[in-house]
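Protocol step 4 of 5: obtain the predicted structure for the target chain.
Materials: sequence only (see below). No template structures provided, no constraints applied. The aim of this step is simply to have a reference model before the mutagenesis design in step 5. Sequence pasted as it appears in the construct record:
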Amino acid sequence: MKRYGTFRSRRCIAEVVKIFAKKLYNEKWFNNRMLIVVLLLLPKNASLWFMARCHAILTSATNLVTYKCWSKSVVADSELNLIEENNIVKDAEDNMEKRLEEATRKLSEVEEKLQVQYRLLEQQVAETKLFYTIARFTHDDLTLTEALQHFVDAVCSLCSWPVGHIYAPTKNNPNELQSLDIWHLDNIKKYKAFKELSEKTKFKKGIGLPGRILESGKSAWIEDVFRDINFPRAKMGREIGVRGAFAVPIKCYDKFVAIAEFFSSAPRQKNRHLLDLIDTAALQLESLLERRQAEALLRGIVDLRHRTKLNNPT
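Step 4 output (structure tokens):
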């Protein structure tokens, strides 16, 4: 009975130890004091071997719990370090993106300023070329037709407009305008229909773009010829290829010499600066025409006096 009781008590204690070991393996609160408490629960007649066995089991459980806690701590520290490193990398990427966006914005601003300056420089060169072309009318002894052709070409180059043309009063009727064979065409094929239509169309005072210039004596601008009620060539039912338009008068002693008209391939809003500039160029051309006519009149008077002296020596 004694042996049986001892054996049964040992088995009970062993079961308790196993339960404590499992419990301690799953929980973090185990410490060495719990080992002492378990050992105190053992009966006095427990053998040293059995006590050593219980001590070994509990010690193994303690080591497992300690290792598990250490492993979790290391993993947690590693995850925390990884999160911090990811945050640092993300902050660096964000800063790099911001710096790149700022640099791109500044580069775009510089590029826009350079483009504006380049366009202004191109415009100044074109304006200079326009007035130089007019000045050549006197120095190169150009005919009126040649001067008007150079004027049309220079204006089209200044405006970057594809079509330029000259109308002039007919010989028999100063209140009627006819087309002159003075053209600037960037694309002959594209504007062939418009050229043919203009060459066979005459305008009376007040009719069409040239006619309204003849009536008012001032320059005019049309944003879209298809929306203008006084542009007959747009109502011919043919594709003329032009949309925006403006025209300026060219006079000599208040008499119309020509009317220069210019066209764009798309609608254009009125550009007051450009129109004033072309008006100024036309006025300069008028001054040169008047000077040339005065010089021709003076030469005629001198020649007449010379012939008179020759015919009447007394």
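Step 4 remarks: The two ends are 186 Å apart (CA to CA). The chain has a mean pLDDT of 78.
Proceed to step 5.
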